[in-house]
Specification:
108 residues; 4 helices; 38% helix
């Protein structure tokens, strides 16, 4: 399955550069957590302070299982808290929601 998400960064060039630097090589335990959840590929793109993430998953992936595993993993929580200092929720996001799942409107 393919899922696409959007999220904004705080509109500050210094913070954006720091955020990108963290993603040049993410922490090994974060990559392990991602891969063990059934996510096979992940890409993040940015224009201005808006980000777009494409996530490819295998048949074992579930949003509920990933959320539970993340909540139980102190290293993932540390990473998420750090990343949240650079990120800001989209206006339509629910309280506490970061990456917002996008609706596919065209496919060829």
């Amino acid at each position: 399955m393919r899922y696409c998400f959007a999220l904004d960064l705080i509109d500050d060039p210094v913070k954006i550069a720091e955020y990108e630097a963290y993603h040049k090589q993410i922490r090994p335990e974060i990559e392990t957590s991602i891969r063990e959840s059934g996510i096979t590929e992940m890409e993040i793109y940015r224009i201005g302070n808006r980000m777009f993430m494409i996530m490819e998953t295998d048949e074992t992936f579930s949003f509920e299982a990933k959320a539970a595993a993340d909540a139980a993993n102190p290293k993932v929580q540390e990473w998420e808290n750090l990343m949240w200092t650079y990120q800001q929720a989209l206006p339509m996001a629910k309280p506490g929601e970061k990456w917002v799942l996008m609706k596919e409107i065209f496919k060829m």
